[in-house]
Amino acid sequence: MLARPERFFEDRFGLTSSALERLLGANLAGRVDHADLFLEYRISEELTLEEGAVKKAARHVSQGAGIRAQSGERTGYAHTDDLALPNLEEAARQARAIADQSSTSAVVAVGPGRPHDLYTLAEPPVTAALDRKVALLLEIDAAARALDPRVKQVIASLGSEDVVVLIATPSGWTVGDVRPLTRLNVSVIVEENGKREMGGYGGGGRVAFDFFLEGDRWRRFTSEAVRQAAIKLHAVEAPAGEMTVVLGPGWPGILLHEAVGHGLEGDFNRKQTSAFSGRLGQKVASDLVTVVDDGTIANRRGSLNVDDEGIPTRRNVLIDHGVLVGYMQDRMNARLMGVEPTGNGRRESYAHPPMPRMTNTFMLAGEDDPADIIGSVPRGLYAVNFGGGQVDITNGKFVFSASEAYLIEGGKVTRPVKGATLIGNGPDALTRVSRVGHDLKMDEGVGTCGKDGQSVPVGVGLPTIRIDGITVGGTQV
Q1: Comparing C-alpha atoms, which of 24, 11, 163 is closest to residue 88?
Q2: Predicted pLDDT at 23
Q3: Exposure string over 291-327, b if 16+ CB within 10 A, otherwise e
């Protein structure tokens, strides 16, 4: 387990708090609107089993620092993988040179330390014994093949990391965090009469390796992967046209994340490029819809004790019973919009500047029984898993492919379908939500969000919901 961030960087690199204060104070204090230093040390490990054998075993260590200076809307950012003080001083000068507009504003003050302790582990996942991890992957391979003789290929992967970060400002304030993360994925290929299909499942979070062994969680991941692949062997072509769609709980929240969540990030709204720009206080969804972004849920993949600017994460209500009440903010966009940061400043690594990003984004539960929701649909589509999708932030238009979906006929879930895509507009779709189930479920812990070339771990969630009138793309009319 990595040491406390302040002691870790002092012991390993000689970066004492006084040295960091002098570094930032001499180069940045009083010269820009805001400045900070982001130090990072990362240990990551990846194991992949394929064709019954471990085909990949890799362990990486990376370290570096990013220094940011902001004046007005200008941001100067410089990074280095050499944590010697002279290199950090040069990075600070370069960041200031990019941002400098002869600003005379004082450095923005920040609040005190860390209020959360969401994922302290006795044994971080990267420190678990390698032979235990390999044994698990081999068990997954054997179990998948035993579940169904049609299984021809099994690919199981386990990725883990431990990241220590320290954020410092010229005022002498520092805050650190140690962030474990792990994820197990199982993919299988089944074959019947020359036809092949693939299924996949997985999960994880800021949890220990033993998380996958609890309650035979790995067996559930494996059986789900096999089940999904087998269902596709006998799926019929999806219908096409406008119809009622019921989204299942959990991972289908990815549609909410992409079609709505990105449009609620502060930078898009400050620049007036979001479909939700300038709509605070307005009705943007059905009365049944309340959307929350919450970075404080213990051990969740998208959770953080503090964001990558040192701001404590929190629970942010974005849409409250259909009314738009807030955006997700990092420090710069909050300052320029005259509001508080919300703990949503995130970055992929020290080599990237932070920007407003989601953490765990979900819709709150309603009161309906999920079975009653399905029973209320004479003809429609029940989508329970999604693959890829595309969204245009400026107008909210989206296209998503359903990796597991079924016909609803006469209020009952009937035949599985393949090739179904959902086509619509995020803000418009929210107004068409007519039923919300009481079964809110978070995803298993596999989400990764991309934005402007940066990827960060996130969580999504959704109860069963009914949306009236979404265009379904398929092959049968």
Answers
A1: 24
A2: 82
A3: bbbbbbbebbbbbbbbbbbbbbbbebebbeebbbbbb
Coil, helix or strand at residue 264: helix
Burial 363-387 (b: 16+ CB within 10 A, else e): bbbbebebeebbebbeebbbbbbbe
Rounded to 5°, the CA angle 378-240-390 comes to 115
Gap between the Cα atoms of 142 and 154, Å rounded: 9
Q: What is the DSSP secondary structure assignment for residue 275, as one 8-state letter?
A: T
Taking residue 159's Cβ as centre, other Cβ atoms within 10 Å add up to 19
CA–CA distance, 401 with 389 (Å, rounded to integer): 6
Instruction: Convert 120-130 to b/e letters by CB count within 10 Å (16 or more is b).
Output: ebeebbbbbee
Residue 375 near residue 238, CB atoms below 8 Å: no
Amino acid at the residue 75: T
* Residue 343 to residues 113, 309, 316, 382, Cα–Cα distance (Å): 13, 8, 9, 35
Interatomic CA distance for residues 327 and 257, integer angstroms: 13
* Residue-range domains of the chain with CATH: 5-232 (3.30.2290.10), 237-473 (no CATH)
How big is the CA angle at 407 (ends 193 and 363), to the nearest 5 degrees? 120
CA-based nearest residue to 8, from 180, 177, 207, 206: 177
pTM of the complete model: 0.94
Q: Is 215 exposed, middle or buried (0-12, 13-18, 19+ CB in 10 A)?
A: exposed
The separation between the first and the last C-alpha atoms of the chain, rounded to the nearest angstrom, is 57
Cβ neighbours for 146, distance < 8 A, ≥ 6 positions apart? none
Intervals of the chain under pLDDT 70 = 1-3, 27, 29-31, 100-115, 475-477
Chain segment 128-137, per-residue pLDDT in tens: 999 999 999 9
| Angle separating helix axes 17-27 and 85-99, nearest 10 degrees | 30
